[in-house]
Amino acid sequence: MEKIKVISPATSANLGPGYDIFGLALSEPYDTITLSRSGGGISISVKGEGANKIPTDVDKNTAGVVVREIIKDFNIKEGVKIEIEKGIRPGSGLGSSAASSAGAAFAMNELFNLNLSKLELVKYASLGESISAGFPHADNVAPAIYGGFTMVVNYNPLEVLHIPVDFEVVVALPDIEVSTKKAREILPDSISLRSMVNNVGKACGMIYSLFKKDVELFGRCMMGDSVVEPYRSQLIPGYLEVKEKIKDLVYGITISGSGPGVIIIPKEGKISRIKEVLDEVWACPVYHTKVGTGIQILERN
Ligand SMILES: Nc1ncnc2c1ncn2[C@@H]1O[C@H](COP(=O)(O)OP(=O)(O)O)[C@@H](O)[C@H]1O
Ligand SMILES: N[C@@H](CCOP(=O)(O)O)C(=O)O
């Protein structure tokens, strides 16, 4: 194989009480990543959403870092050409950096037939997240690679659990930029026992709800975070207003990842009214989509 093209999906991490643990693959938007064998070295080109904000230096691009590490570990003598077409806005809270990291790991595995497991792909992809977030959080790259809903139950060693799920979501992308690195810096180093009890309880409710296919319980528990949202909602003007105005139209709403993206679990038949509120407050892009199945191969030759 000389070339492979994959689509790597947006992902919504944290999902309220699951900070750095929970993640959901979405069906759209997505990045398109093409890797080709080349004469030597690693080259990167980026086009599409926010391309001008994305470095093409190998050591500063999440996909470049992942490819560099795999080449080193497997002593690959050939070069790799990386072509990234961004469909996910950088700094959106939809795992834009993660989509490139995960797509690059997946594509390298196929291009050089490395037989890496999904867990090994998550490990490599999370190295890219160190570049964008300053910490190799795996809660975006895991759902991009596994699809569905994932839980990073341990970081050292890495352990990921996966639940295939399929329900509709609405994602709004206010025209605000929030860097994950900055959105992590504003969080406290420690929390109260009451906050821990609250978040663990809500997280348990979310996991139980997936096995019972109870989207109302999922959404209600998703809204129960008392650790991260109080800080990060301050970075998203209009968030509390939207939350109040749509409370009777949704099962749940929370900040997607580090924001400013917002993920909503809609009640049946309420989509158009939800979109009206989002348009009134933010007048921003809105995706009415569903949980995705992860990275897909588009072409290989
Ligand atoms: N391939 C890439 N795709 C997206 N962002 C990248 C990439 N490589 C590096 N970055 C940097 O990562 C940052 C976006 O990541 P982050 O702040 O985590 O937001 P997001 O929620 O979109 O992942 C941007 O500052 C961008 O410059
Ligand atoms: N757990 C991370 C998730 C960041 O998600 P992103 O989509 O904003 O990159 C965090 O909250 O810092």
TrEMBL record:
Enzyme class per UniProt: transferase
Example GO CC term: the record gives: cytoplasm
Localization per Swiss-Prot or TrEMBL: Cytoplasm
Asked if Amino-acid biosynthesis is a keyword of the record, the answer is: yes
The biological processes this protein is annotated with in GO are:
threonine biosynthetic process
InterPro entries attached to this UniProt entry: GHMP_kinase_C_dom, GHMP_kinase_C_sf, GHMP_kinase_N_dom, Homoserine_kinase, Ribosomal_Su5_D2-typ_SF, Ribsml_uS5_D2-typ_fold_subgr
Q: Locate the GHMP kinase N-terminal domain: which residues?
A: 66-148
Pathways involved: Amino-acid biosynthesis; L-threonine biosynthesis; L-threonine from L-aspartate: step 4/5
Q: Which residues bind ATP?
A: 89-99
Q: Which positions fall inside the GHMP kinase C-terminal domain?
A: 206-283
Write down the superkingdom of origin: Archaea
Listed GO MF terms: ATP binding; homoserine kinase activity
E.C. number: 2.7.1.39
Catalytic activity of the protein = L-homoserine + ATP = O-phospho-L-homoserine + ADP + H(+)
Keyword annotations of the record: Amino-acid biosynthesis, ATP-binding, Cytoplasm, Kinase, Nucleotide-binding, Threonine biosynthesis, Transferase
Belongs to which family? Belongs to the GHMP kinase family. Homoserine kinase subfamily.
Q: What does this protein do?
A: Catalyzes the ATP-dependent phosphorylation of L-homoserine to L-homoserine phosphate.
User: What name has this protein been given in UniProt?
Assistant: Homoserine kinase
Q: Which organism is it from?
A: Methanofervidicoccus abyssi
